[in-house]
Specification:
Elements (H helix, E strand, L loop, with lengths): L46 H9 L2 H13 L3 H13 L7 H13 L3 H13 L7 H13 L5 H17 L2 H9 L2 H9 L34
Length: 220
């Protein structure tokens, strides 16, 4: 078994490849695993809401998680976002799902990063942007956001981007700064990512990388 990482990811050989990871994961039937979305509603203070979900009582679940969200609980925000994403107890609404995910994103919730990445990858309620999706999945790893299950799903999503994107697209993604990615997400893709103010260095120039992880290339 390869090493279990919760705070990052080991990169080797090329910026187009990700080293193999192995995680111990507690799976739940409520996870939307096919799209590798993240939803971990079970945490302290949420038991009443979880019990309501199990009963199929989404009105009560919404009330419970909404109170937690209003108190600043980012996990509750993601949970409500998933109600709208999947149409559980409510009419499916990607815009409302994104609203809740962005609230959690602003608080640094790794599941929100991953879920927003899925929506930009698949064009769900937004114009597709694979570079943004790539960067969001990457940031979950490099920032050590979320627990093991969050890391695993982000890794799977990142592997898909690596397999499907061309070299030029990945280089473009790596030339964006973290601040530009975050501004794009909060602005709901109102402008091209590179038009937002750059606060800090390009992702490719961050301290995260080891020698040989990335080829030497310049950003336009």
């Amino acid at each position: 078994m390869t090493q279990v990482l919760t705070a990052g990811v080991v990169w080797r050989n090329t910026f187009l490849g990700v080293a193999s990871l192995s995680f111990n994961v507690v799976r739940s039937t409520v996870l939307f695993a096919a799209a590798f979305l993240c939803w971990n509603p079970v945490h302290a203070g949420a038991s009443e809401g979880v019990d309501a979900i199990k009963r199929g009582d989404y009105e009560t679940a919404y009330e419970e998680f909404s109170a937690l969200a209003d108190a600043g609980d980012s996990h509750a925000m993601v949970t409500i976002g998933m109600f709208y994403y999947k149409g559980d107890g409510f009419e499916q609404d990607y815009d409302k799902a994104m609203d809740w995910f962005i609230r959690a994103f602003k608080l640094g919730n790794g599941d929100a990063f991953n879920n927003i990445g899925v929506m930009y990858r698949d064009g769900l309620g937004v114009t597709p942007n694979r570079a943004i999706a790539y960067d969001l999945f990457l940031l979950v790893h490099m920032r050590g956001l979320g627990g093991q299950s969050t890391q695993q799903r982000a890794n799977r999503n990142l592997r898909r981007e690596v397999a499907e994107l061309g070299e030029a697209q990945i280089k473009y993604a790596l030339c964006l700064s973290e601040s530009q990615v975050k501004a794009f997400v909060v602005d709901r893709g109102g402008n091209r990512p590179e038009t937002y103010a750059r606060d800090g260095t390009a992702i490719k120039d961050r301290e995260w990388w080891l020698e040989g992880d990335l080829p030497d290339f310049a950003c336009d």
